[in-house]
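Below: protein 1.
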Amino acid sequence: MADMKTLQRVILPEAVQTDVIPLYIDSGSATGVQLPTRLDGDAAKTIEKAAAQQELKNENAAGPVATTSDVLGRRSTHLAAGKTVSFGTYFNAFPASYWRRWTDLKSVTLRITTEGAGMVVVYKSNARGVIQRVDAKVLEGAETVTFDLTLAPFGDGGWYWFDLTATKSDLTLVEADWLGDIQPRLGEAGGKATVQITTMNKVQYCIDNIRSLGNNLDALETVKEILIVDQGTEKVQDHPDFEEVVAPLAGKFRIINQANLGGSGGFARGMFESVNNGSDYVMLLDDDVVVEPESILRLITFADYCKNPTIVGGHMFDMYDRSVLHAFGEVVNPWRTFYDKPHEDMSLGHDLGRNNLRSTHWMHRRVDVDYNGWWMCLIPTEVINKIGLSLPLFLKWDDAEYGLRAKEAGIATVSFPGAALWHVSWQDKDDSVGWQAYFHERNRLITALIHSPFEKGGSVLRESLFLDVKHALSMQYYTEEGRLMAIEDLLSGPTHLHPSLSERLPIIRGKVKDFKDAQLKSNLDDYPQPKTTKPPFKGRRNFSSPGYQKLIPWTISTVGRQLFKPVDDLAKTNPQIQLNYSENRWWTVSKFDSLLVTNAEGTGVFWYQRDPKKLRENLARASKLHAQLFKNWADLRNQYRSAAAEVASYDAWAKTFQKHTESELTR
């Protein structure tokens, strides 16, 4: 065992994290798989068979569930006599299929140290989610047991894990590890990483994560530097707890204060500094997250053992519902140039507190991805030297574009199970409206120009024009202004990208005062009371979609009404209705002349008011710009593809950083 390397440590949550217990340790049984939405033929029979085999019939399943009172530390837990717990969980099962696919590992050794009387049973699963018992040993007194486990059958998917049962007396798990006889790609010591956080006025999040990292120094042995790129007006270094929380990280901590260059400007700075300081990797982290520190060690360890330089990313759990998994793997649909799931039966927003890993068949299939979100993503500096830094997109699509660029250069991205953080979910915000709409539109089109394999970008132009019509009909005139500005800038060519990092956002935000629909008020009483003489939908609130079959004639009718029917006089002074956020759909909003709408965060209300003149101007402008895009697509594609390497280069970013760096602080 002396030459064996630790690949993954079994860990437990901190005492205050009762809501994440199911991600670490599980007292329930695997009660059956979650079925995909569409099944037929042999696939249905296979899943039914898996479900039947997965009924564990555990006599202890109805007993007490694991609680933080059982947890003795980050590595150790206690089992009362007669109790069984499973480590077939997100953070503690071993993702065997990922190690088999991306490394030279042929087998893995499970080492478990316990005290007391009991039994350990080792299980494995296959890509269909079928659970199979592998081996078992009786435990007596204080001892360490090992299991040598082959990775041969994990070609398409599957995990290893173990269950513990306390039999004649209480049982304590002292520690457990997954070990491998394998050499790191970068040498015996492995690689070192710069962990970089890009932040914009999220000071408390940064302080909390710095404190967490300082309390888990054993997970930072492979970290060369922790770097915060602070682009906000409220500075992390001004927080009263700053000196206290950085003290444990002495010699490993640095802050760069720079102008707001967006997420891509912050992350590109992390890439740039990691090359400069001699790191082997840069780990990019969002600021509004809660990090599981062990995930940092796991991503670096896995990347060290990959056969080739590989981008390795972590998954995203919901910040406010912490057992809910939102991102297990992501691809870009090449026809639409839009985010997609790797396969149809994958569920977004899956609650592992209600359906554990062992019961969720699709999580046993290995997922191959195009990119990993930069909420947590490890990039080798070898890759940066080969394909460049992020494109200067400010925000949105920078991570997806980089993953596609890497893929075209023969560099894989792996979304690695067992490494994750908690982040505010997409369901709690809507960044497709408001000032961010500019970046969504422009950067999606840039990504299509550079990477789409289809002439004219597949369906991207048609979808873009439809979204313009949708926003215009929804009276979201500020959002639509940003989208149209995006196309105008796109048509000007790639030379606008670096200057736009600092120049474009102030212009977009400055236009807020010109659009009534962009004025957010937190107090509903600041608006006139809703009144109407003849409410649409015959006064009903069941605002159903027209459906795809009726969509075109329905849209034509709605456009005609908005263009030519005069605005109701009462609607000019009073909104006709107030809609909550879930009711804010374009087919509903477009039927009114004036209405109040709650924003996605629930922090305020907008007043949308129909303006036929503005609608005509927007539709005419959108049609003209999309005609230009269609006509000039081939030329624009050549421009952006030819310029991409230079725009993302070290030298181009060096000039931008030199211009916008404010100060540095080392601790």
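Below: protein 2.
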Amino acid sequence: MRVFRGLCAAVVVAAGLVVPVQAASAVQRPAVGSEPVYDFAGAIRETVWVDVGRDGDGDGKPDRVAADIVRPAEPAAQGRKIPVIMDASPYYSSLGRGNESEFKTYDQQGRPVGFPLYYDNYFVPRGYAVVLVDLAGTNRSTGCVDVGGASDVQSAKKVVDWLNGRATGYSAKSGGSKVAASWSDGGVGMIGKSYDGTIANGVAATGVAGLKTIVPISAISSWYDYYRSDGASFGFDPDGLAETVETRNGGQDCSAQNTKLAKGATANGDFGPFWADRDYAAQAKNVHASVFVSHGVNDLNVKTINFGQWWDALAKAGVQRKIWLAQTGHVDPFDYRRTEWVDTLHQWFDHYLMGIDNGIEKQPMATVERQPDQWVDQSSYPAAGVKATTLRPHAGGTAGVGTLSTAATSGTASFTDNLDGSENGWAANPSATSPNRVVYSTGSLSAPLQVSGTSSITVTAAPSTSSARLSAMLVDYGPATIRNYSAGGEGIKTGTTETCWGSTAPGDDACYKVTSADTTNVGFTVISRGWADLANYRSLSKESPLTPGKPYTMTFRLATTDHVVPAGHTLALVIGGTDADFITGPAKGPKLTIDLAKTSVRIPLVGTAPAGPGAALPRTALSSVANRPQLDLR
């Protein structure tokens, strides 16, 4: 069954399936806004190849990227120019886009017919052009991808330039006649999930004129933090991703470029020039576009430090911004809160691309999912009243198990890195001694504590060997129903009923399968985590040899989040060695001795943290989701 959505929010009831519209944080439709008045079936569909001024594949010819365009015919016929919504992606012929893995399709003459996702179906009838760009080296573009580097970013930036009359477009992949974007008003909004949203971040960081807004969904802000974490490696590298997205391209040889990727991303986890070239957060001062961020706080693919450092850098640059945070993993808001997302996105683009005064910029800055399908608005992110609070571990009566409070502390604690531990195993028996981790907790909270922002931990540890890894996590101990973010859908289930979002034309369907929350009951929830190579204690740019038995102090980041630990639950800090689900370990696992007096965790909290010891942790074994990360960057 298909349900066609009008301008108002709907409740779909079909074949026993009920999809409610959430009452909390409901979107109010603007009094004025773009309406679906243009003929989608009669829209102009064309491809323009834009010269990016590079020769990434070394064939002696400047690379050209394919920009597939769909735009309403009526405005141009009336002499009116229109804005553009752009999604630049490497996946249009390799892995596909969206929950249903859609690919671009073409007719026998090579003209674009099927545009993945709903952006064209929904927005073209409302007076927007939609432009889907193949990154260099993918699908019908020449050149090679460089996984977040200059080629990737220029692939999209040059299309923005072309839309503003500053770059040259052609009617063919090679040769052809020049084509001007005479129908474009120059205003561009970039959107996309994962790699696509990452490119939007990268283009915004160039400060390119004409880019009015970006909507990065589950996007990377620094490629280092996708592949590495404070000196530790996640065990996969950019050249593998490049080879994946270059399948089904025009046949160009990208082996030389991929060799450069392999050499640039050093295995030791050090931060160097290769990663600096792909650090958009460091260039946030150049951003002039407004930014609407969406991310799952349980995204173990594009880990949440990526939105956290981007958000903070944008704040320092004074960028106008908005954020949605879900309990999901690596999931598009269209698939966990469809009606509200499309309505909000509609208002966002209307305001920033069409100049419509609909008040979207005055709505609450943050919308956060507290429990599955239960949403709250916040006036700011991090939350109002947040305070960076330092908590310190205290030894208890059981070895390796103690308390966590703001009070000063002393003593030591030890554990051994067995190289195959994981966060769930470490957290499952919090009141028992473990040879492979230590755990410290606040005890049962008398009032809720909200963790809102990016935490960090400072650890002073003496390793028994010359190489060591550290892992740390914040845990909410207490029963809860959460989205099952480690399952295949990363917090959603896909049904069979479809809802339709905009107009349909032959070969370009506007209808998508309804999704619902995939939930599970847990005894504890890992709310933030981080990893480090102790050899990078002095600098992320260069390892320093470790002397066995000598203590070293290192500060590293824990994942950005927004989570409320309810009254009656316990907030705990767990420290271990190599978390085998995430990072690669040293050749031999060391024994690590922690100096508690020089170890602390700094957490952005709303609420009062305990000043002294609390009640003991639960003595029964607890369970949570299996946190092996999904590594499909789609």
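The chain has eleven helices and 34 strands.
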